[in-house]
Amino acid sequence: MRDVLKLGAFLLIVAGIAGLGLGYVNSLTAPVILAQEEENKISGFQEVYSQAEEIKDESAKYLPDGADGIVREVNVAYQKGTPAGVIYMVEPKGYGGEIQMLVAFDIATKEITAIKVLSNKETPGLGAKCGEEFFSERFQNKSAEGVLELVKQEPVGDNQVMAITAATITSKAVVEGVNTAREHFVSNFL
Amino acid sequence: MNLAKTFSKGIINENPLFRLMLGMCPALAITTSVENGIGMGMAFTAVLLASNVVVSLLRRIIPESIRIPCFIVVIASFVTITEMVMHAYAPALFESLGIFIPLIVVNCIILGRAEAFASKNGLVPSVMDALGMGLGYTLALVTVSAVREVLGAGTFLGIPIIGLIDNPALVMILPPGGFIALGCILALLNKMQQKKAQSN
Description:
The structure holds two protein chains of two kinds.
Chain A (H helix, E strand, L loop, with lengths): L1 H47 L5 E4 L1 H4 L8 E9 L2 E9 L9 E7 L4 E9 L13 H4 L12 E3 L8 E3 L5 H22 L1
Parallel strand pairs in A: 6-7
Antiparallel strand pairs in A: 1-2, 2-3, 3-4, 4-5
Chain B lengths: L2 H7 L14 H6 L4 H24 L9 H23 L1 H7 L10 H11 L4 H31 L1 E2 L2 E2 L14 H25 L1
Antiparallel strand pairs in B: 1-2
């Protein structure tokens, strides 16, 4: 019995020291991690909607019951005090997990200004290409008013987007993300 | 055993991946690019070095009957520290190694070295053992990932290779490619070993 207590106490001390050490390292790295994530998001905003003077997170106003479907955030970009564009963060489900991406719309032109994939867990060499520029460029300046359609050949219609070869599920997910953001944009801002 | 031998055994004769067949799971999963291989190897070496040092220093204090839980606590703490530091200062690498950083905890080589070497040897040999094993594992990961990246993506460290970039064998960076590459490398090493044994 005494032996058990002694061993237990020893383990407790070992775990306690480890816990203290971890707490200390966490207190050093947590602010750096937070700052970095924030910075990533802001530089992403800049990339998809460059004309904004001020960007406000208005998710609470436009997403009443918290996370509504795959739309995670609604950020409104202001120019001279009036809303000029909207930047959505959506997380559609791809082949390997959620694809976190930004979709930005311009209110005046009713067009998609740009999209940007922030993170994905898609297959390297196939679906992971959705983060590359050649694919996101295919969404640029598409009208927000019609449903975007995924095609496998060179697009003929204005609302068509060509899929990534051999990564249909990923392409579908990205288009679904853009369409969901688009619906929300049309019903709330136009 | 002298120090040089303690160091070098991890690289060739007792290479964790190619000879001891330990740590296979991350080796198959993350070796899709050379950059991943180097990053994983460095994270692994850092954890192994720290855990070997602590286990070696505490080897006379830790009671025999609860040594394994103590080793695990030590290893898990260092893995978590590595994870947090990497997340803060190397976010791109952190993102691509993903779940396999926390899984270093259950990487059998680290517990294996703590049990088989650090808990029975002094500080300096344990450090040499950790460095040798870490280097051996890193080299093994880089070898496997070089084969997979060159054949599967047509690049090396992200630099395109002319002639391969246009039509790479995609299967090599998918999971089956990991098994194929590792199997072929092991077969080649065994063949070389046999030749050496025959000529002796």
